[in-house]
Design a protein that fits this description.
Carbamate kinase; four-stranded parallel sheet; four-stranded mixed sheet; 8 helices; globular
Amino acid sequence: MGSQEHGIDAEVCASLARQVKDVRSMGVEIALVVGGGNIFRGQVASKRFGLERAVADYMGMLATVLNGLALQNALEQIGIHCRVMTAIEMHSVAEPYIRRRALRHLEKGRVVIFVAGTGNPYFTTDTAAALRANEIGAEIIMKATKVDGIYTADPVKNPKARKFTKLSYMDVLKRHLKVMDSTAISLCMEHEMPIVVFNLFKDGNIKKAVLGEAVGTVVCA
């Protein structure tokens, strides 16, 4: 949503698409998992409006589809072939998620965008990212966010918060650091899937993260 309070910012979409294209040009296979908090956040809405949690979560999953389609459009406008694959079947707008088909798209050089989370309520987009990363045999999860890594506290609220350069999975769980939910961290820990957390809004950071440059915080075994 960029600097807006709600919705999709076309300039942010275009910037992200350009960064993805830059990385894809190096021959890197890229799969993206998008959230939907800029449109609808299920857990928050459930508490605020009294919606049943499962219903609110399904609504949040549908919001991720809107973001996925917007990102697909931005990528295709600059010549990147991509496919949106959804965990909730909706044949008119996206392909159903099938692991072998996703792998084939990646082999053909297409960017794959995974939407609708895991297709189940009570699981976050973080868990969907961890699940899909392990399913497709990804080398790393790159969590692009609003801050440049993991801190001891929220750096926006606490100027004394200290940034970590490297953490173990157990460190994240024991310290209750909110970078990803515990289910996602546990899944990554079980399969030794490394995670790098970095600032999405610094242009070129995706490429730097792919190249292994120090752009955020690494979580690993």
